[in-house]
Amino acid sequence: MPPTEAQWNRALDYLRAAQGLLITAGAGMGVDSGLPDFRGKEGLWKAYPALRQARLDFKRIAQPEAFDRWPALAWGFYGHRLSMYRRAVPHAGFGILLRWAERLPHGAFVFTSNVDGQFQRAGFDPDRILECHGSLHWMQCHAHCRSRIWPADGFEPDVDPHTCRLRSPLPLCPDCGALARPNVLMFNDLDWEMARMVAQRDRLNAWLESVGGDRLAVIELGAGQAIPSVRHFSLRTGHPHPAHQRPRQRHFSALGRGPGRHGAADAAMAGRPHLIHTGGFTRPAPDMAKRSSTLETTLLALEMLRRIPRAPRSITAGELHAQLVASGFERDLRTIQRQLDMLSTHLGIERDDGSAPYRYRWLPHARPLAIPHLSPQESLLLKLAEEHLRPLLPAHLMKSMEGFFVQARHNLEPDGNARLEREWPSKIRTVATSQPLLPPKIVPGVLETVSEALYHNHWLRLDYKNAAGRRTTVEVMPLGLAQQGPRLYLVCRYRGFDNERSLALHRILSAGQASTIPFDRPRDFDLAQYDADGRFRFGEGALVRLRFRIDRRTGHHLRETPLSKDQTVTECDGDRLEIAATVVDSAMLDQWLKGFGDAVDGVQKEAVA
Ligand SMILES: [Zn+2]
Q1: How does pLDDT run across 32-58, given as a tens digit for each residue?
Q2: Is 76 within a domain?
Q3: Nearest to residue 348, comparing CAs of 338, 333, 360, 337?
């Protein structure tokens, strides 16, 4: 819909009041300079009939794999475009933008998804341009031997117009001699060297800082609503807060062909009438339109986005890498770093350059992603899991779930709409069966080290102080972790022994990994059986037939919660019950019986074969 007169006047007011102009541009910006936009197969094949013959659509020719499979064809396509961009004469719209920029104290900065270098050619300061998909005027090593990015200046492609093949020699990496490729972001492209773009982005951030958000006008040119990168960027820059909070923040889009309209703005700025139409405002940017289309790349990106916390919390590339590896994404750190830098360019993710290593986080006001978020029920389940399972899950797993826990807590915050779910935790409670005790203090880091070693089957070296206060250093094979009331116990074997012991975690003074070589977990150990044998109740697994008499009122609960499946209850005279049950003998059993005082008598134990 073309803008109305009133909208145009408002836009002019914004421009007049602005201190700096941010120009965001997509593929439509190049169309009036005669550059093809490759929209759809037909657009591409009209420009490159040889690709039609080869049945290669844009996505297949514009990906790194094409340089492996058909290097001459891929370089024919990119080389031809490079020559075309070198020859193109930027249309009048560029000049008009330059003049608008000259009138503003902070001038202009360009954010473009175009790889054609037209803003530089039109005379914009190269230090005031961010090319978020790179530039065809630059190259990188296809074997990515190192991160060097070099200008394509020396490369004069000679392309056969009929076959779309490069006739001149293929450009090579000056460092290793492997094939070179354009430094542009392609489809399925995890190897794009982004250092140049990152430096540009840093300059843009510094510029935005110097202008101040409330004095910025944003003009959006030739970027379709369908293109994520440019649109997201200008929305993010233009609307960091709801409009009413930042009344002087100015953002407007040029979303229509209107000869004379930009001219009017130009006249208002410069006092001289000009005509301009930039055209093609809703066309997709070819190098971005369907990027990251493989499932794998998409899943990785989604996983990363989910795990980046909201400000003020933040995460480093290394931490994120560890979480992703723990979740089965086998990618190297460098890939994660690249993806992070790319995501932070395109979405509401901020990189904190003030810390080393860099930390990343969602901006507090960033819109939630359009992927399904946790439902209130899922949030509730996660919140309960976090509260009750934390000591029983390996530390790295808890850490890898951190993003979900944060999201779950956030979803259940008072200003959310999950009121009934939020109330649920206050409606349920696990209560103690005996006198409640506060949990003992565990030395920080001990639980993490122990659970990691248990998870990975690594020997542990422990500095341990037993209940009597004697301190020893031992090497143990961790076999199990058990929670008993408020205490945690490590079930383990000492080096050189084949019987198990339980060590209280709060008596471990320090814990370290004793070896990186995993041990074979003994087949004859079973934690469930160990528990069933009464070992956590200080027993040795001996079954006994227990008989005792108990006061009727005191013993009534044993009818409801019996000691064993074979328990029998017999009425006796004198208001007493006789109980018989097969149980594991243990110190805890004796203690339990003692706890009834005079209400219990006639205790007998018979060994069960
Ligand atoms: Zn190389």
Answers
A1: 788 877 766 677 787 788 888 878 888
A2: yes
A3: 360
